[in-house]
Amino acid sequence: MLCRDRDRGIRARRRIEREIVDARLCDETLDASDLEAVRRVGARLAEGPVDGLFHNAGVLPDALRRTPQGLEICFATHAAGPHCLTRLLAPALPRSRDARVVFHASVGMYTKRLETDDWNWTQRPHDGVAAYAETKRAQVELAALFPAPRACGCVRDVDSSRVGGHPGPPRLATALSQAHAAGFAHGGERRRHSDLYPHDGSGRDRERRVHF
């Protein structure tokens, strides 16, 4: 368990251990937005097998904040840090028989297109909600850039390799229909949407992956 706040991480670990008797957990402090810390922890964890990697770190700032590396905090937390850690752990994933990588995105990404011009918020007035939505979308889009499961030695089954998706609100289908009806679009054009983005590294990925 890689947790930004050590005390909260310890409490979460103890709660899990109370509920799952045979759970074997260890906690470590890591701020996913700090790339130097990510590289340091990732290099150490890459020495052993990694069965699963679940990226759950999130932040919604009320003002512009930057990391020691100069990255906007949402971009660093949701995109740069998780993808850096996944790259670093790539050698460890094939050592598992059923390695999985999951990016915990957000339904908020449906309100924004992928931002490629000013992703680091150097030209626009900062908007925390917009930054959150844009980087959650970037998180899912970047998941498609990882090597094919066979190439990195992981299982071939697309559902057990790498996935980016969001948990959705209680009434997901209704919410997405309303969002689509409201005209949230990429480049002004309405398109279909999906709450799950599976990728297996083949040409079929892009055919199945639908987005704004």
Characterise this structure.
The protein is α/β, with parallel strands linked by helices. The protein has one domain (49-208): Rossmann fold. It has 7 helices and 6 strands. A 4-stranded mixed sheet has the order 3-4-5-6, with helices on one face. Strands 1-2 form a two-stranded parallel sheet. Helix 2 packs parallel to helix 3 (73-88) and helix 3 packs parallel to helix 4 (128-143). The relative contact order is 0.12. Residues 148-212 have low confidence and may be disordered.
Secondary structure elements and pairings:
Layout: E1 2-3, H1 6-19, E2 28-29, H2 35-45, E3 52-55, H3 73-88, E4 100-104, H4 128-143, H5 149-152, E5 162-165, H6 172-181, E6 196-198, H7 204-208
Parallel strand pairs: 1-2, 3-4, 4-5
Antiparallel strand pairs: 5-6
Helix pairs in contact: 2-3, 3-4
Order of helices and strands: EHEHEHEHHEHEH
> What is the CA-atom radius of gyration, in angstroms?
18 Å
CATH architecture: 3-Layer(aba) Sandwich
CATH superfamily: NAD(P)-binding Rossmann-like Domain
What's the β-strand tally? 6
Give the strand content: 5-15%
Order the strands across the largest sheet as they lie in space.
Answer: 3-4-5-6
Give the % helix.
25-40%
Structural class: alpha/beta
Average of pLDDT: 74
